[in-house]
Amino acid sequence: MGNQLFPVFLKLNQMQTLVIGAGPVGLEKLQAVVRQSEQARIKVVAAEISDEVYAFAKEYPQIILEHKNYEAADLAGADLVIAATNNPALNLRIVEDGHHARLLVNIADKPELCDFYLGSIVKKGDLKIAISTNGKSPTIAKRLKELFQEHLPDGLDITLQQMSKFRQTLDGDFQDKVQKLNEVSAVLVRPAAKSPSFPFFKWLVWLTIMLSLAILLAIFWHREPEFQEYLINIDPIFYWFLLGGFIFAMVDGAIGMSYGVTSTAFSLSMGLPPASASMAVHLSEVLSNGIAGWMHYRMGNINWKLFRLLIIPGVIGAVGGAFLLSSLEHYSAYTKPLVSVYTLILGGVILSKAFKKPGKRKNGKIKQIVPLGFFGGFIDAVGGGGWGSIVLSSLIAGGRNARFSLGTVKITRFFIALMSSLTFITMLKYVHWEAVGGLIIGSALAAPIAAKVSNRISVKSIMVAVGIIVILVSLRSVIMFILKVL
Ligand SMILES: C[C@@]1(CC(=O)O)C2=NC(=C\c3[nH]c(c(CCC(=O)O)c3CC(=O)O)Cc3[nH]c(c(CC(=O)O)c3CCC(=O)O)/C=C3\N/C(=C\2)[C@@H](CCC(=O)O)[C@]3(C)CC(=O)O)/[C@H]1CCC(=O)O
Ligand SMILES: NC(=O)c1ccc[n+]([C@@H]2O[C@H](COP(=O)([O-])OP(=O)(O)OC[C@H]3O[C@@H](n4cnc5c(N)ncnc54)[C@H](O)[C@@H]3O)[C@@H](O)[C@H]2O)c1
C-alpha cells in the first residue's frame, strides 16, 4: 500500500509538547523539536536528567525541566507527547494514558507504539520539506535530507519571498490570481534546455528540401542550355570549397569554434586574396550562425546584457577591419602573409587550449567586454575568423557561464558576419563567387549533421587536429612568401 502517513506542519510555538525521558534519545528528540521552532513550548519529565539535557535546556528558557518520575497528571495541558524512556512497560503506560486523554503519542524508535513519526527535515528559509520512509529506514531519510539540503538552490527562498510580494500586488478574483501566479512560476518547471541536437525527422525535411533543389536544378539543366553551359564550365575550385566548407563546418559544429580560422587558412592556400577569402568566409557564416543563433535564442541561452555590450563595438571593429582589408586588396602579397601569421598564432592558441587542464579558471567575470568586442570584430574581419575563438574563449576563461556565453557569441557572430560581408561586397570589385558558393553550400549541408555528431567525438582530439591543420596550412603560406621574397 506504500506510505499512508499524512504529513502535517505543526505550530509548535502555540502548543505544549511533553518529552518524557532525558537520556541520549530524549535529548535527540528534544533537539529535533527545538531545531524546527526555537519558540516551541516544551516540558521535559524524567527520573534522571543527563548533563547534556541540562546544558541544552539552559539556552532555551521556554524548556521546563521536571526532575521526577512520570505520572498521568504530567499529560495535563500537553498537546503532543514524545517518550524516550528505557522502560518498555512505562512506554506502554504512556501510550495508554495518552490515548485516554486523546493525545497523539510518539514512542521514540518504537514504530508500533507511535501515533505519528518524526520526519527528516530539509529547511531553506521559509521552505520546509519533511521526509518519511514509513519507518523503513531513518538512515535513508537522513541521507535524502542531506541530498536536498545541498542541491536545492539557496535562491529558492528568494523566489518564495518574491512570489509572496507579487501575490500581494495582484487584484481581481481568485481565478485570475491563480492564473497569474502560475504564469510567472511556469519557468521553474519548464523542461531544461536540450542540447541543439537535430532530430531524425528534421533531417528528413532537410534532405527533402535538398532533393527538391536538385530536381529543380535538373529540370533547369534540360530547359536552359545557357544554364547547362554555366554549370559545365563551373570552376572546379567550387567543388574544393564545397568540400572544405563541409569539413570545417562539421569541426566547428563539434567544438564551437575554428570555422573562420580553418576556412580562411584554406581559402588563402587556394590562392584567394585575403579580403576575398574573408568575405567568402563571412558570407557563409551569416547563414550558419543565423541558424545557430536562432536555436540558442529559442533555448533561452542568450545573455542580453552581454549581447548589448558586445554587438556595437563588435560591428564597428568588424566593419573597420573589413574596410581596411578591402582597401589593402592591392597589397595582398603583403597582407596575406600577415594574416597567415595571425592564423598561425590562433592555431597555436587552439592547440594550447586542447591541453589546458579544465577547471583552472580565474575567479571573477571578465569586465572589459567593450574592448573585447571591438578587438574580436576587427581581428575577425581582418583575419577571416576569430570572433568565436577570441570572444568566446575570453568570456569563458574570464569566468562567465559557458552556455550563455556560447549562445550570445553565436548570435552576435551572425550580425558581425553580416556587417563585414556587406562591407566587403560594397568595397570589392571582383567577388570569388565559386569560393563563396562552395563554402555556403558546404557549411549549410554540414550544420545539421555536425550538431548530431558533436557529442560523440572527444573535444580534445578535434582541437588537436584543428590546431595542427591550421598551423600547417598557415606555415605553408608564410614559407611560400618568404621563399618568394628571397
Ligand atoms: C527521521 C528521524 C527524525 C528524528 O527522530 O528526529 C527519525 N529517526 C532518525 C534517525 C535515526 N533513528 C535511528 C537511526 C539508526 C539507524 C537506523 O536504524 O536506521 C537513525 C539514523 C541516524 O541517527 O543516523 C534508530 C531508529 N529509529 C527508529 C527505529 C525503530 C525501527 O526502525 O524499527 C530505530 C532503530 C532502533 C534500534 O535499532 O534499536 C524509528 C523511527 N525513527 C524515525 C525518525 C521514525 C521513522 C522516520 C522515517 O519514516 O524515516 C520512527 C519510525 C519513529 C520515530 O522515532 O519517530 C531521524 C533522522 C535524523 C535526521 O534527519 O538527521
Ligand atoms: N541510546 C541509543 O543509541 C539507543 C538507540 C536505539 C534505541 N534506544 C532505546 O531508546 C530508549 C531510550 O534510550 P536512551 O539512551 O535515551 O536511554 P537512557 O537510559 O539514557 O534514558 C532513559 C530516560 O528515561 C528516563 N526514565 C526511565 N524511567 C522513568 C520514569 N519512570 N519516569 C520518568 N523518567 C523515566 C530516565 O530517567 C532517562 O532519562 C531505550 O529503550 C533504549 O534501549 C537507544
Automatic annotation (TrEMBL):
Keyword Ligase: no
Keywords: Cell membrane, Membrane, NAD, Oxidoreductase, Porphyrin biosynthesis, Transmembrane, Transmembrane helix
Transmembrane segments: 203-221, 237-259, 309-328, 334-351, 372-397, 462-483
Domain Siroheme synthase central: 125-148
InterPro entries: Met8-like, NAD(P)-bd_dom_sf, Sirohaem_synthase_central, Sirohaem_synthase_N, TM_pro_TauE-like
Name under which the protein is recorded: Probable membrane transporter protein
Gene Ontology biological-process entries: siroheme biosynthetic process
Keyword Electron transport: no
Topological type in the membrane: Multi-pass membrane protein
Gene3D superfamilies per record: NAD(P)-binding Rossmann-like Domain, Siroheme synthase, domain 2
Pfam families cross-referenced by the UniProt entry: NAD_binding_7, Sirohm_synth_M, TauE
PANTHER family: SIROHEME BIOSYNTHESIS PROTEIN MET8
GO molecular function: ferrochelatase activity; precorrin-2 dehydrogenase activity
Subcellular location as annotated: Cell membrane; Membrane
Native organism: Pedobacter antarcticus 4BY
Involved pathway(s): Porphyrin-containing compound metabolism; siroheme biosynthesis; sirohydrochlorin from precorrin-2: step 1/1
Reactions this protein catalyses: precorrin-2 + NAD(+) = sirohydrochlorin + NADH + 2 H(+)
Main location as per UniProt: membrane
Coiled coil: none
Family note: Belongs to the 4-toluene sulfonate uptake permease (TSUP) (TC 2.A.102) family.
